[in-house]
C-alpha cells in the first residue's frame, strides 16, 4: 500500500518520487501498446532517426498530433493521473504530451543533465513527468536526479550536443548556462533507483535529471507522460506555445493559469 502522505512530502522536498508496482499487469501492457503505437506512427520530423543503418540507436519522439488515437484508452484506465493528484495534494489533472525513447544496438551516450521545465512553456507546483520503463534496470542504469533542484535555479537547458552537454538550447534565453553536473558528480547528492516494469518515477518539470548510457546487448524502452494541475501557469521559455495549444502565446500572458480544450482532463473525469 502506497503511503501517499509520505510520497507527497518527498515530492515537495525532492522534486522526485519512486512508486514501485503502481501499474498492474494490464495497465503496464496498455502502456507498452501505447509506446508501440508511437514507434509504428513516428512524427515526420523524427521518422528518419529510426533508420539505424547498423549503428547504435538512440531514438526519441514526442508530441504526435494524433497521440490520443493511441493513448486515450491507456490514459483513462491508468492509475497515473490519480497518483499525480496524490503527490500534488490537489486536482484536476490534465495530460500534456507523450515522449518515447528507444536505446539499443550497442553503446549509446547518456542523456545529458537537463530540466524539462526550461523548455516547456508552463510552470507551477502541479507539474509532473511520469517515467515508465519496460525493462528492469539496475540502479546504475536508471534515470538519475538531483533532489531539491526543482527549487531552482532554472538553467538554459542542454542542446544535447555530443561535443558539449552544457551548450544552451537557445543563447537568447535569460537563463544561466547549465553547469557540467556530470564532471562535478561528487558535489551533488544524486539519487536513482533500481526499477522494475510496473514501477513509475514521478518528477517535477524543474527537477534536474539525466540518463545512463547503454552498453552492447542492452535494450532500453521507456515512456514518459507529462501532466499539469490546478497550480500551473503560462511561462514562455525556449518554447512559446505547444502543438496542442498553438496559439498559447497570443491567448495567454505570462502568469496566466493554464487552461485549454487541447489538454485532456483525466482526473477526476469530467
CATH-level-4 superfamily name: q2cbj1_9rhob like domain
H-E string: HEHEHHEEEEEEEEEHE
Could you report the average pLDDT, rounded to the nearest whole number? Answer: 92
Q: What level of helicity do the residues show?
A: 10-25%
End-to-end distance, in Å? Answer: 27 Å
Class inferred from helices and paired strands: alpha+beta
Q: How many DSSP E strands?
A: 12
CATH class category: Mainly Beta
How many separate structural domains? 1
**CATH architecture level-2 label:** Sandwich
Indicate the overall shape: globular
CATH topology: Jelly Rolls
- As a whole number of angstroms, the C-alpha radius of gyration is 18 Å
Largest pleated sheet: 7 strands, antiparallel
Percent of sequence in beta strands: 15-25%
How many helices? The count is: 5
Low-confidence stretches: none
Keywords:
3-stranded antiparallel beta sheet; 19% helix; 270 residues; alpha+beta; Jelly Rolls; 7-stranded antiparallel beta sheet
Polypeptide structure, described:
The structure is a single chain. The chain is an alpha+beta fold and 270 residues long. The protein has one domain: q2cbj1_9rhob like domain (Jelly Rolls), CATH 2.60.120.620. It has five helices and twelve strands. The strands form three sheets. Strands 1, 2, 3, 6, 8, 10 and 12 form a seven-stranded antiparallel β-sheet that branches. It has a three-stranded antiparallel β-sheet with strand order 4-9-7, with no helix packed on it. Strands 5-11 form a two-stranded antiparallel sheet. Helix 1 crosses helix 4 and helix 2 runs antiparallel to helix 3. The chain is globular, with a radius of gyration of 18 Å. The protein starts with a helix and ends with a strand. The mean pLDDT is 92. InterPro entries: Phytyl_CoA_dOase-like. Keywords: Dioxygenase, Oxidoreductase.
